[in-house]
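This protein record is not my work; I was only asked to verify it. The record follows directly below this note.
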Amino acid sequence: MALIGGKRGAIALDSKDPEFWFTPKKHGYGATPTHWKGWVATAAFAMALPAVSLPFLLSLTDETRTAGIMLWAGAVLWAVWQFTLFAKRKTDGEWLWRWKGVAYRSMLDDLGKAGEGGAENKGNDKN
């Protein structure tokens, strides 16, 4: 499959229509599965982590416990990071902090504009 663009905005030439599995959350940060493939991917990831972790952690001995736990923690962080990148690529929209579907950045910009307008009005009242 040929790709156009960088890693983040790559477009597959072989696909007719980009298929999104997740949608940005309306509250907080992240995405929610909205397609059955997103739900399957999320469930598989949620089941695979403990299924792989438990036997590994139970196999550690006293001599290998510290190094093993450090290796396990690194592997879990890497796996979560990879799933997050995957989910971002499959999300229909940008991951932003939101409240009621509005990005915090937009709300802060609006507050700044309102504050500036308020300062201008106060200055006009003095004249």
